[in-house]
Write a structure and sequence with these properties.
Layout: E1 9-12, H1 15-25, E2 29-34, E3 42-47, E4 50-56, H2 58-63, E5 67-71, H3 75-85, E6 98-99, E7 104-110, E8 116-122
Parallel strand pairs: 1-4, 5-8
Antiparallel strand pairs: 2-3, 3-4, 6-7, 7-8
Length: 124
């Protein structure tokens, strides 16, 4: 078997919260946009080789608030950009770049719905 990408679905009661986190804050691009759907608004967002499906579904959003990790090779630059542009999204429990016991520098974001993104850089 050969897999090339893991693509999570992230469910929101209001998909605009996901757009703010992934597109406005993290710089993803919308490559498919069906927010006008009356049945279930849906977007595909992409950043380099990363892809996420944002789905507006209140039932599933109430059941699952994911925690995702994004790895980078320049965490200080990423932190500087995000803390300047979207400081309100910094997670109160990990709002600064911190060296963790597992030898990774990390900081975290959390959106208004509780979706958490941990940005990390493994140390050598």
């Amino acid at each position: 078997m050969n897999f090339t990408c893991l693509v999570p679905n992230v469910f929101y009661t209001d998909i605009s919260i996901g757009i703010q986190l992934f597109v406005d804050c993290l710089g993803f691009t919308i490559t498919y946009d069906d927010r006008a759907s009356l049945h279930q608004p849906f977007c595909v967002v992409v950043n380099d080789n990363l892809k996420v499906h944002l789905v507006e579904n209140a039932e599933f959003a109430a059941k699952d608030r994911p925690e995702l990790r994004l790895e980078t090779n320049d965490i200080d630059s990423v932190y500087q950009t995000i803390s300047a542009s979207h400081p309100q999204l910094l997670h109160p429990n990990l709002s600064t770049v911190t060296l963790r016991p597992w030898n990774a520098k990390e900081f975290a974001l959390v959106d208004a719905s509780g979706v958490c993104i941990i940005i990390q850089q493994w140390m050598k």
